[in-house]
Description:
This protein has helices at about 25-30, 40-85, 115-125, 145-160, 175-180, 210-215, 240-265, 280-285, 295-305, 320-340; strands at about 95-105, 130-140, 165-175, 185-190, 195, 280, 290-295, 310. Helix 3 links the parallel strand 1 and strand 2 (about 130-140). By secondary structure, it is an alpha/beta fold. Strands 1, 2, 3, 4, 5, 6, 7 and 8 form an eight-stranded mixed β-sheet that branches. Helix 2 (about 40-85) crosses helix 10 (about 320-340) and helix 3 runs parallel beside helix 4 (about 145-160). It folds into two domains: about 55-85; about 85-215 and about 230-325, 2-enoyl-CoA Hydratase, Chain A, domain 1 (Alpha-Beta Complex), CATH 3.90.226. The model is unreliable at about 1-35, about 85-90 and about 335-345 (pLDDT under 50). It is built from ten helices and eight strands.
Amino acid sequence: MTDQVEPSGEPASPQSQTPAVAPPSASAKAGPEVANGAPGWERAALEKLAFASLHEQTLARRWRTFVRLAWLSFFVFVAWAALSRSGPVSDVSAPHTAVVEIKGEIASDTEASAELLVAALRGAFEDDGARAVVIVINSPGGSPVQAGVINDEIRRLKAKHGKPVYAVVEETCASAAYYIAVAADKIFVDKASIVGSIGVLMDGFGFTGLMDKLGVERRLMTAGENKGFLDPFSPQTERQRVFAQSMLNQIHKQFIDVVKAGRGERLKETPETFSGLFWSGQQAVELGLADQFGSLDYVAREVVKAEDLVDYTRRDNVAERLVKRFGAALGEGSVRALRSSVSIR
């Protein structure tokens, strides 16, 4: 058997008879990883997820620590502020004039409450360096109960410590503020101050006529025929009106007795004195409602003879207001639950 001869005339080699195989492609060289993307992509993805989870946990831990430190700082600040409640800040052992301010409405939830003012007055009277106590007043009035408590305490402290008390009126000393002022030994005013308003009021509204026109029916249920007599949506009977007026007259008489006891023979009583009118400082001096003109500095310098002023006024500081609001927020849920229940008011 003769060898086959290529057209070129050369004998065919064994390799020439083997089928040609294409060289491996780039994908074959890269291996199976290339089918799914870059080499080692699964590992890289898992590492990214792990690091992201660790980062989130770290941030959460730092946030919890920050919140805890913030609450701790808040309570430390509250405790510090409560212990360093505002009061006299100068050397109270030296002779001085003690000052207590009454500013704004006189009520239980204000800085002119009996609680704060009585505490301030006690501190002023009990200090050995205080030569006299000056009450600086700028108030339109307020609660007769709060004013009565303060008036009684001023008279008690005067008798106990034997120190003089002076009232200095700035812009206004009316109603309950004047109730307090008459406990002082002397009342000093500016000629343009507003003084007086010796009277009592109880205000409100009545909507019964409007409700009738609108066709609105008031459904108020009470146990006791007079329990809702101050309800603005219910008609007021003549008997209820007389009862309320007698109560106001009684409180008014208490006010008048306090003024007469405090002013004594200096008071030049007229038919208008206890009518609820108010007067300028100049008229108040003429009527005996005040003694003379003078400011705080004048009283300290010329009357007390101790120019150094020490303020004993107690005030709610920022921390105390925050605590009160925090307590109110805690009780809000309970209040909402009680609103729908029967109440005794």
